[in-house]
Each structure stands twice: as structure tokens, then as C-alpha cells.
Amino acid sequence: MFARLFYSLFAAAGGAGFSQFPEYLAHYLQRLGGRIDQAKVRVEEIEQDAAEKGMTVPDYIESFIASNAHSLEGSRMQESYFRLADMEAAYQALSTAGTLQRPLAFVEHFDSGLVGATLGDFAPAVPLTSEGLVYGAVGAVAGLLLCSGSRRVLRRRRNRKVEA
């Protein structure tokens, strides 16, 4: 009786937890899209400023980095300029990945700052989509496997203590 309850709780917890991934990913993609939009504006400004000075963008940025008084600004420009391509690639990979490939794409393009910011505002949702149900089922199985594995470990420890 206790074992069934234990397995049920682990399955429910796993299903509920995993089923939140699609909603969390939607929030994550929304934040990532906002950062991309912001970076595009910044890159356009850098490109316009470089063109006005008759310089290439890399040379323009390097002139700031080489200047002691403006090296920090140069570093920020460089990060904005070169990070945009990475963010766009991450957005593309995450938004086009299939249901079961999304967790792998998420891990591949993991951005700890963005993950933390998204978690700070994330509110769990009821997963009424087929994708939410798939993740819920996977989570339920993972919960059952975790429960089963932990019970086996505990049983082995008890058996060792009894034998000793």
C-alpha cells in the first residue's frame, strides 16, 4: 500500500515537473527574442557610427578597445556585435527543434543568465497541449524510475545492515 502511494507521488511529481518544460521554453524564447531585438538595435548603431567615421565595424570597435578611456565601451560593443549571431542561432535551434529534441537544443544553447532571469518570472501553467502531455508522460516515467531506483538502493542498504 505504502509502495503504491510512493510510486504514485513520484510519478505525479515527475509528470508535473517535466510538463512545465514547454511553457518554460516559451518564456525563455520570448526573453531571448527580446535580447536579440535589443542587440540588433545596438549593432545597427555601431554600424552607423562606424560608417560615419569611414571605418569597418571591427576597426571601429578595436579603436575603442585600444583607447584606455573607452576600452570598456569597446568591449561592450564587441560583445553586442558578436553575440548577436550566437543568440540568433540559439533562437533558431530552439524554435525549430522537434518536441523531443528541444531539451537537447536547450542544453546545447544554455545561457545561465537567461535561464535564471526566466526562472525568476516563470509561473507554472497547466499543460493542455499535446507537447505538455508528452513531457508529462516522460516525467511520470522518470519519477517512477527514480522511485524504483531509490527503493532498490534503500533495500540493499537495509539488507547489508541486517547481514552485518
- Proportion of beta-strand residues: under 5%
Helix content: over 70%
Total of DSSP H or I helical runs spanning 4+ residues: 7
Calculate the mean pLDDT score and round it.
85
The total strand number stands at: 0
Q: Are there runs of 5+ residues with pLDDT below 50, and where? A: none
Rounded to the nearest angstrom, the radius of gyration is 24 Å
Oligomer: single chain
SSE map:
Blueprint: H1 2-18, H2 21-52, H3 57-66, H4 71-96, H5 102-108, H6 112-121, H7 130-163
Helix pairs in contact: 1-7, 2-3, 2-4, 2-6, 3-4, 4-5
Compact description:
By secondary structure, the protein is mostly helical.
Distinctive features:
83% helix; mainly alpha; 164 residues; 7 helices; elongated
What does this 3D model show about the protein?
The chain has 164 residues and is mainly alpha-helical. It has 7 helices and no strands. The longest helix has 34 residues, at 130-163.
